[in-house]
Amino acid sequence: VGYYTSHGTVWWSWTAPEDGRYAAVASATNTVTVGIYTGSDISGLSLVAFSQASHGALIDGEFRYCRQVEWNPTAGATYHLCVDGYQSTYDVGLSITLPPQVEFTSPSDGSVFATPVGIPVAAEPQDPDGTIQRLDFYEIHTAPGSGWSVPIGTCTSSPWALIWDDGSTGNYPVGVRAIDNLGAQVTSSNRVWIGVMRPANDD
Q1: Distance (Å, rounded) from C-alpha 169 to C-alpha 184?
Q2: pLDDT tens, 165-192?
């Protein structure tokens, strides 16, 4: 599945209880991918979707590498899920869950700050079938042909807010990512643009 030459796969079958947006999250002691298929025969399966970038999460108190894929299953349809690893031995798990949600509450879009110190940052997460494990806030920067993020900070409990004291100067968007107790993640749909000015005495 995806990018790796397979050294071993684990398969599950799952029948969707209802229509909706679901996430399949593979968690393992090393990097894996997860793919979703339909079909009744292994030689004739059709790929529905497969995972992209990995992230880390605590699953039952232990760090795991996670890969997530989201799709819109049809109620009553059966899907076959494959977790594929590039090592011959690893511990692996799979969760099918409703993905969490998160929205920025501070700063507001278009905010301008006279200094990179003391900027309030906050968001409101929700998880329809679990609990929120953490929020990661980050700056978003781009250049021709590339892009990168700079961590702002992490919250692990409510209130989901922090004071940011080392923002980069310039104009750029900031984002937030929520990760739930099963390792499912989502990034905010309302990234906000801010301006951070250089302090007057910063010569």
Answers
A1: 32
A2: 999 999 999 999 999 999 999 998 778 9
